[in-house]
């Protein structure tokens, strides 16, 4: 195989994409569960009500939501990348089939 071509083994690609999608779903479920647990903990206001409590709460909450959003966004991006990889493989295989059909038709008609 030359370095200017791509070979996709359909069964191997399908297996890899299925594993990606399954892993992305497991990751999304786990992240959602952890975010829910963090939000439940935050709602309990564990920082207390003494003089430092409100100050800690304000500082904590300032960074908490952007961090939770970043983790959630990362899992969304992993899911989207898997979908894009799936689309790319499908498009490549369809292109191969289309190109093969174009080559086969003239050869068969010349027989």
Structural commentary:
The chain contains two helices and no strands. It has 111 residues and is mainly α. The model has no long low-confidence stretch (mean pLDDT 87). The longest helix has 57 residues, at 53-109. The protein has a domain at 71-96. It starts with 9 loop residues before the first helix and ends with a helix.
Question: What attributes does this structure have?
Answer:
single chain, about 110 residues, mainly alpha, rod-shaped
Mean pLDDT score: 87
Classify the oligomer. Answer: single chain
- What's the order of the H and E elements? HH
Shape descriptor reads: rod-shaped
The biggest beta sheet reads: none
Report the strand count: 0
Distance between the termini: 29 Å
Count of runs of 4 or more consecutive helical residues: 2
Helix and strand layout, with pairings?
Blueprint lengths: L9 H34 L9 H57 L2
Helix pairs in contact: 1-2
Provide a short characterization of the protein structure:
With 111 residues, the protein is mainly α.
């Amino acid at each position: 195989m030359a370095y200017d071509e791509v070979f996709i083994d359909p069964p191997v690609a399908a297996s890899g994409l299925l594993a990606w999608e399954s892993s992305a779903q497991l990751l999304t479920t786990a992240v959602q569960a952890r975010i829910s647990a963090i939000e439940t903990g935050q709602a309990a206001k564990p920082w207390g009500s003494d003089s430092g409590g409100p100050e800690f709460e304000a500082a904590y909450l300032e960074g908490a939501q952007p961090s939770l959003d970043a983790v959630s966004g990362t899992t969304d991006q992993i899911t989207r990348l898997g979908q894009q990889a799936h689309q790319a493989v499908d498009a490549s295989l369809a292109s191969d089939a289309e190109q093969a059909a174009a080559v086969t038709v003239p050869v068969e008609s010349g027989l």
